[in-house]
Amino acid sequence: MSRKRIIIISVLILIAAGAAYLLAAYISGKFPFSGRYGKKAGSAEVNYPEKAQVNLYFADDQNVHLRAEPRSVSRPPDPAEFGRIIIESLIKGPMGELVRTIPEESSLRAFYIAKDGTAYVDFAEAIREKHPGGSSSELMTIYSIVNSLVMNIPEITTVKILIDGQESMTLAGHVDLRFPFKVNTALVR
Question: Which residue among 49, 57, 155, 186 is least enclosed by CB atoms within 10 Å?
Answer without folding.
Answer: 49
